[in-house]
Amino acid sequence: MPVISSFYGVIIRMFYQEHEPPHFHAEHGGDQATFSLGGELLLGRIRSRRARQQISEWAVRHRRELETNWQHMKAGLPLERIEPLA
After folding, report:
1. Nearest residue to 69 via CA among 24, 20, 8
2. Which helix (H) or strand (E) holds 23?
3. How far is CA 19 from CA 43, 50, 52, 54, in A?
């Protein structure tokens, strides 16, 4: 599962051959969760409120890149790295 970004102890990944709706996976401090491309928590748990907020903020800022990566994933193309939250 390719890492597409990492920041402040958060690792963001996207799987190939994923199911709808479009989403990404985040890990932080041993916790794992799935988020919509708009940054909403869909499944799983990230206990750190601050990390959840950072993930959501990052997703909002990079929604276009996430959507592009989702299309690349569906087409079997390489995923692009996305700038971390600064």
Report:
1. 24
2. strand 23-28
3. 14, 28, 22, 25
